[in-house]
Amino acid sequence: MLFAGVDVGSRTAKVVILRDNDIVATHLMSTGPDSAGTAMTVLENALGKERISIADLSYIVTT
């Protein structure tokens, strides 16, 4: 199963993609004025590194 964790802070957005407790991909970027847009962008960038589709994720957890 694939899981994503997304954290959008005031300055930095981070994501980690896990498969069976192993880190598959990560991404880090500056947070822009659109927090929701930043969350999608950072997630899409991490998924793209391993050619994973958002539909492949079982769960997405955000903070």
- Name the CATH architecture: 2-Layer Sandwich
* 3D shape: elongated
Q: Sketch the major β-sheet.
A: 4 strands, mixed
Classification by helices and strands: alpha+beta
Strand content: over 45%
Could you state the order of secondary-structure elements as H and E?
EEEHE
CATH topology: Nucleotidyltransferase, domain 5
CATH C-level class is: Alpha Beta
Q: How many angstroms does the end-to-end distance come to?
A: 21 Å
What number of structural domains do the residues give? 1
Low-confidence stretches: none
| Average pLDDT rating | 96
Any idea what the radius of gyration is? 11 Å
CATH superfamily placement: ATPase, nucleotide binding domain
- E-strand count: 4
Structure, described:
It contains 1 helix and 4 strands, in the order E-E-E-H-E. With 63 residues, the chain is of the alpha+beta class. The protein has one domain: Nucleotidyltransferase, domain 5, CATH 3.30.420. Strands 3-2-1-4 form a 4-stranded mixed β-sheet, with helices on one face. It is elongated. The protein starts with a strand and ends with a strand. The relative contact order is 0.32.
Describe the structure using short key phrases.
63 residues, Nucleotidyltransferase, domain 5, 4-stranded mixed beta sheet, 4 strands, elongated
